Amino acid sequence: MKEAKKLVLLFVCVIAALIVFNAITFTTKENEYAVVKQFGKIDRVIENPGLSVKIPFIQTVSKIPKNLQFYDLPQSDVITSDKKTMIVDAYIIWEVTDATKFTQSLSANTSTAEGRIDVITYNAIKTTISNMTQEELIASRDDSIDIANAEAKLEDVEIKDIESDDAKTGKVKVIDLSTKLLEHVGTQCDQYGIAIDDIEIKVLDLPEENKTAVYERMITERNNIAAAYTAQGQSEAQIIKNTTDKEVSVLLSEANASADAIISEGEAEYMRILSEAYNDPEKADFYLFVRSLDTVKISLDNGQTTLFLDKNSPIAQIFQGVE
Fold first, then answer.
1. Distance in angstroms (rounded) separating the CA atoms of residues 239 and 233
2. Containing H/E element for 92?
3. 61 by DSSP, 3-state: which?
4. Computed from CA positions of residues 234, 236, 237, 241, in that sequence, does the dihedral angle turn out positive or negative?
5. CB atoms < 10 A from the CB of 199, how many?
6. 238-280 tens-digit pLDDT
7. Which of 50, 65, 80 is the last residue of a domain?
8. Which residues constitute the domain of residue 26?
9. How far apart are CA 74 and CA 91, in angstroms?
10. Is residue 10 a contact partner of residue 17, using CB atoms and an 8 Å limit?
């Protein structure tokens, strides 16, 4: 009986010790701050992970996340400096940098912190975009633009220093919209013990009611550009064709002139050779005889078997035996 009472008493003591231990100790994880308050005032902030001690019933502990937080901003409409409406949808990466300020100003409440971040970031987006044209806004989304092909005027776009690699490729770095927004936010969140690490634009688009008109205008502009390139190409093609035709005509004229000259020289040489070959009466008679035979041969072509000759012709005289 006494042993049973001892066991019960021991069990009660162990339970009481665990209760007391849990009441006076708490654990801080790696991804959180532990804020110890005494009578509503901050007594200390524990940043390192591990086991800590507090005064039960007098001190309370609240936990604040130390890791990066994600906040998705509601989609909103903004107006550019050239009075164009754009839809902006962004998200924010933020973190608590000062647990004391975060607790004093926002009661260590992340929802309250996101409400303040929402206001600050929206004002930054509105102010930044209202100072940019739609063309600059679109250009600022890219890492770089090509000087040769950029439609936007570079003097109207805020640019960074030209880096060596980009200088070789003919590209200029353009400050992206996220950088502009972070610059505008600046240190506004420091008073709350938080820091905005990144602001990224998920959607930067036109309102649905404006898309059709803008797309049609873009199509018309591209068609005009294409027509201009086509007209320029056709003009250059016609110039090349006319130049080529002229060169061909000149070459043909020169070739025909050279051919006529060669033919004339050949005929003259032919006549000279004939003249030398038949420069005596016997050779001349033989030449006439051969030419007469050629004539007879031509006359008897196409199956002709009858030949009519004048009695005084050289061929008839040969057949008659006249010398």
1. 10
2. strand 85-96
3. strand
4. positive
5. 24
6. 999 999 999 999 999 999 999 999 999 998 888 888 777 767 7
7. 65
8. 2-65
9. 9
10. no
